[in-house]
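for the recovery benchmark. tokens below, seq after
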């Protein structure tokens, strides 16, 4: 039985990855921050499964600042694979807390790499990087060779972490990979992100629970994919016979307005009657034309997205509509 450690296991990607690895008969050890012990419906359901909790799924309350606890955990578990997904992932918030973002995202990755390097044998290591490392890209679309040009503290922190993974791979021979992820969404996306704000607001407006949605730039564009597809790519990347960095993306650009069109139209609503501009949500520096070229993932890992953009948005709207109805009934 393979053993894996996942940092950020209670988040969107971490929870999907835990489910995937458990379906492949892994023993999964998930790291959660002490002050943020998970209380999310999808994760609670996973933890409550009697055949998993305490038998093949174990949770450990550790912060990425606690090097001693992390080292102890890896020495006890002796994992075959480590998936590093934890981090302060909200780009806008990184301007408000730049120091903690860089420490948690950049230095936290360095601490883990040092611990992994000290293991005998070292486990395979995956770092979930971000398209935000490209910021204002030198080429469109971006691939694994595109130079980094971040425009936010979050992007800069991810750039540091991404380069550290490469350096440790090249200098110490670690099986260390960067999964360079373009935006990816799902019903488990946090409600502070614009995508989930839109699908949740559309559902609440349909049910008469809200009458207004405040947003920033509606013309902002991103390459948005489906989170479970990306998590499948993570696993494929660590099963490959040699370590490498890999872009996970759809290769298609969409605007924030496209989310509004699909989400509100699906519920027979006109978003123009409800959406107002709020300058608080406008980025201080907006990345431009972030769209990925996932050729390496497609050709080497045989990875392809399974869900279209429209279908993903509708799936999130339907989830939020059902969730709001259940809450209202309760």
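predicted aa per position
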């Amino acid at each position: 039985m393979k053993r894996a450690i996942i940092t950020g296991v209670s988040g969107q990607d971490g929870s999907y990855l835990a489910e995937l690895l458990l379906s492949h008969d892994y023993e999964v050890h998930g790291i959660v921050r002490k002050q943020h012990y998970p209380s999310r419906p999808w994760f609670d359901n996973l933890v409550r499964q009697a055949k998993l909790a305490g038998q093949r799924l174990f949770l450990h309350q550790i912060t990425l600042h606690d090097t001693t606890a992390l080292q102890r955990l890896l020495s006890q578990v002796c994992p075959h694979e480590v998936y590093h997904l934890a981090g302060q992932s909200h780009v806008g918030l990184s301007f408000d807390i730049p120091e903690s973002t860089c420490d948690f995202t950049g230095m936290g990755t360095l601490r883990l790499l040092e611990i992994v390097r000290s293991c005998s044998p070292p486990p395979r290591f995956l770092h979930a990087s971000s398209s935000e490392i490209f910021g204002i890209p030198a080429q469109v679309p971006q691939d694994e060779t595109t130079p980094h040009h971040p425009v936010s503290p979050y992007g800069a922190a991810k750039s540091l972490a991404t380069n550290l993974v490469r350096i440790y791979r090249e200098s110490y021979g670690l099986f260390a990979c960067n999964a360079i992820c373009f935006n990816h969404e799902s019903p488990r996306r946090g409600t502070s992100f614009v995508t989930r704000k839109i699908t949740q607001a559309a559902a609440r407006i349909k049910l008469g629970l809200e009458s207004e949605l405040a947003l920033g730039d509606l013309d902002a564009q991103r390459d948005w994919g489906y989170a479970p597809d990306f998590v499948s790519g993570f696993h494929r990347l660590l099963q490959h016979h040699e370590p490498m960095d890999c872009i996970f993306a759809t290769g298609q650009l969409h605007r924030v307005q496209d989310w509004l069109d699909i989400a509100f139209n699906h519920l027979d609503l006109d978003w123009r009657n409800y959406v107002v501009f709020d300058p608080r949500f406008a980025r201080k520096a907006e990345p431009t034309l972030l769209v990925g070229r996932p050729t390496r993932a497609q050709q080497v890992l045989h990875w392809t997205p399974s869900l279209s953009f429209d279908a993903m948005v509708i799936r999130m709207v339907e989830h939020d509509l059902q969730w709001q109805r259940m809450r209202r009934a309760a």
